[in-house]
């Protein structure tokens, strides 16, 4: 299976390096991505929006023979959902890592502090304690050293969706900060945060208790969880 890995904000393809070994060992073709504007500290970020990132991943899907599994971490969840909407026949499963599908008109996070056309990794006190669970001082130092400013518009642009066949693509949610039972409860309560997730017809939940960056805090466990999700589709 071709597995496309889409990182969250401030991260490039290398952020998946400790997650991919079990996927590769199982014989899967792994495609960790660096999205436009995140090629390096000096990469141009003006004019790069949410649709730019969705289109970049669609292009990767179009360049691969056969079906794919999409994996999106954090803001990458919104991106892979846009790809599912664009290519529902090509995606056999969408895996949301401490994230979920972003519905029509939603934005990823328009409250992050921007500096012009980019959003640098904020100070740690901007994040909730739950975000930072298991992210010790050494991991925080490594994260900050590798962090690349995020194109501002990716965080602020509204999601645009067109194809209701996206709801037919099976999904796996790997729940880290919040237990999956809480997500299921929110769906039952029609909470707007999970409205789009609640419309997907086939969703499985996997609990991986840790903070918002399991690729750093529990990479082996994350790799195993992704592998299990992928192998549900043969």
TrEMBL record:
Gene Ontology terms, MF aspect: catalytic activity
Gene3D superfamilies given in the database record: alpha/beta hydrolase (3.40.50.1820)
Domain AB hydrolase-1: 3-222
InterPro entries with a match to the protein in the record: AB_hydrolase_1 (IPR000073), AB_hydrolase_fold (IPR029058), Sec-Metab_Biosynth_Hydrolase (IPR052897)
UniProt-listed Pfam families: Abhydrolase_6
Protein name as it appears in the record: Pimeloyl-ACP methyl ester carboxylesterase
Taxonomic superkingdom: Bacteria
